[in-house]
Every structure is written in C-alpha cells, then in structure tokens.
Amino acid sequence: MPAYLALLRAVNVSGHNIIKMEHLRKLMAANGYNNVQTYIQSGNIVFELEETDKAKIAYDIKLLLYKEYGYDVVVYIYDAADLEQIIANNPYTDDVPEPSGKKKYFVVFLTHEVTPQGLDKMKKYNRSDDAFKAVGKIVYLKLSQSAADSKLTNAFIENKLGNNCKATIRNWNTTLKMLTMLQTVNE
Asked: Which helix (H) or strand (E) holds 120?
C-alpha cells in the first residue's frame, strides 16, 4: 500500500487552528487511512492509503479537517520519492541532520511553482544575509541567524510570490525525519 506524507499548513501555530495529533490519528484511522503516524505538533502526518491521486488525497484530508474542526487547512501530499528528490535538491546542505541548537536550514513547501516575478520580489525585499533558492514548488532557505530573526517567513514568502500561493515551512531535521517515517511506515 502506498505511503504518503501530509503536511498541514498553519495548524497549532500561536494558539490558532488547534488540532490534537492523537485525535487526528484516530480520526484518520476511522476514515480509512492506515498506519497513521504524526510527528510533533505542527501537522506532519505519515499514513498508507490505496488511493494514488495525490490531489484527491489532499482534497479528502482538507474536507475531513473542515468537517471535523471547521478549519480551512491547506494540505500538501508527498510520497517517499518526492521527499527524496526534495532532499537531494537542497543546494545548502547534505542529507544529514543539523546539530542541536539554532537551526538554519529550512524547506518551504508551496502550492504553486515560483514565478520569475515572485522570485525577483523575494530577492528585492530580502534585506538580510539569508539565502534562498527556488526549485519548482520548493524554496530552500539558509538562514544567517535564527528563524525568529529572519524576514523569510510564511507571510513574507506568500506575499512576495503572490498568485494565492500558500507556503508551509519545515526545518531540515523535520524534513529528514519525515522521509525516514515514510520509508519505514509499513515495516
């Protein structure tokens, strides 16, 4: 059975869109998702499902969350091959976790591909030593300081990319952990 990663945008952030992961695992299991696992509280879900249409899976989870919680949540769906490619494309680091402490490598998952105009806006208004590179629907970040000190936030990225593009950000260690979970979900 195929394994997937669902990333939920803007859940459990600053007291908004609260979803308890234990309840979410039970809800998904009751609705036909198999071997449901979550990682930390920021909406990272690994599961198995016979369905192979990722757009349909994302829509079905979005609908399930709306019916259960009343939240309109953007859902991103990836399989192990997708995540392997995302990790391999990172121009700033290899596929090794960052040591404990301040994190500087992040992956921004987008709903739309970055346009040249959006990329130009990000470059024009990024007034820090933070670096980024866009590859399709992914933006890789290398922050000079902490995420809290960076201008490259979800809101900044979405605003500069325009076209109703939505973003969710995961640090490098979480991204690597999600791949490990995907690869071992059915063991």
From this structure: helix 116-125
